[in-house]
Amino acid sequence: MSQSGSQAAAFFREVARNQVVWFVRDDEGSPAPITSNGKRAAPYWSTLARAQRAAEIWGRGLRVESMSLEQWQNRELPDLARDGFLLGINWTGARLVGWEFTVGEVRNRLAVALVSRPAETRGRQEPTFRH
What pTM was computed for the model? Predict the structure, then answer.
């Protein structure tokens, strides 16, 4: 698997486990670079450390922020899909490169990751009692 492929796989696994998505922004908003196919991509990371490295590489006073997976799925992804953005997933390296996905692809891969995560991270079920 390529470096970008392993970073993408880590994104879905870690986001499913931790239920948090990380991004970088300044007072103007978040960077959305134009990708090699001419579309803008909104970058997201699966851990604080990954997002901090991106903020340091890009500089320009960017700060790291997070949002819950639920908020990301319900508020951010619909807006990004409507506006035609791709999603940059766990971009790394000196030039912050990696894979971009459509919102639909991200939703599908995330659904698989959420079903596949270990039982101990899915939340505890309250016991059922018979009366």
Answer: 0.85
